[in-house]
Protein: 3-oxoacyl-[acyl-carrier protein] reductase
Organism: Paenibacillus barcinonensis
Amino acid sequence: MQLNLSGKTALVTGATGQLGRVIARTLAACGANVALHYISNTTKAVELQREIEALGRQAVIVQGDITKQDTSFRIRDEVESKLGGVDIVVANAVIQYEWTSVLEQAPEDYVSQFESCVMQSVYLAKAFIPHMQHMRSGRFIGINTECAMQNFAHQSAYTAGKRGMDGVYRVLAREVGEYQITVNQVAPGWTISERDRTSGAGHDEAYTQTVPLKRRGEDQEIANAVAFLASDLASFITGAYIPVSGGNVMPAI
């Protein structure tokens, strides 16, 4: 049994980010052609495109503000013209901001999280789900977070955005299931990325003591979960919120 995405086309939003780049590489390593969305890091986008092409896959780079509906439709048209219809959507992009208390958090931070978590997913669905419905196949995957279950201090804007996103994905899973389209979320814990490995900041004793596996997860472990959900091995999994957090959060029945 192999995880094989050969012949599939994937779109990864925020592909130049710390997690996005690993997801894109992993999907390509499994055989998919990949559309790499980015907002501003053109250098990294071109570098990532070359990496994927070196694997023998096709890769295109697409730029734009994914919180705007017209951008999602333009990206769809660009990708379809170069790679064909998209089989796998990974909504990974999110706006970064400084976390503080509810009383101190700027109102615009709540708006930015709603736009980048909820509305990004809505616009991507409107742009890419119709093709999946026509093909009666598809994978729609969102990157959520363990924070959506933790509700810790200073997480309010991020948690609000991700919990809203969760609602969209669960409803969408019910709406498109008859077309054999699966809709799932991967929820990372505090993940070690390339930046952490470069800076040597991969360990935090206070955090790891709360994790049953007593360590932080690796970006590759998150990407592995995404690739699994994108594959035929996960054909009967939909509507799921799957923590990849070493047991730090555990959804209950």
